[in-house]
Write a structure and sequence with these properties.
Blueprint: E1 2-4, H1 6-15, H2 36-43, E2 51-53, E3 57-60, E4 63-68, H3 74-77, H4 89-94
Parallel strand pairs: 1-4
Antiparallel strand pairs: 2-3, 3-4
């Protein structure tokens, strides 16, 4: 399984336009927007096969292919208590954890 570092995901978040849409509840490639992990998977990892994302792992064709570092998950990066308030990357940046 390939590893994605926490910093790689933070750098991706910080490079996105403020008004770019994001839906933290949409963890599958089947949606029209996607969470941060879905968008990262499509744009940076160039995954084209069916996939979905958990808090820690990206599953391609139902097999774990990529994972955040052993002690990291998306909730360690973006405060999960505010996911329903997030609509754009400007919102994501407001709720980044240090």
């Amino acid at each position: 399984m390939k590893t994605i570092t926490k910093q790689e995901l933070i750098d991706y978040i910080n490079s996105q336009p403020d008004d770019k849409r994001v839906d933290m509840r949409q963890c599958s490639v089947l949606g029209n927007c996607g969470c941060v992990m879905v968008q990262y998977s499509k744009e940076i990892l160039n995954i084209t096969d069916p996939f979905w994302c958990g808090y820690h792992v990206i599953y391609v064709n139902n097999f774990p292919e990529y994972a955040l570092g052993a002690d990291d998950n998306i909730d360690d990066i973006i405060d999960g208590d505010h996911w329903d308030e997030i609509e754009t990357y400007a919102d994501v940046r407001k709720f980044l954890k240090n």
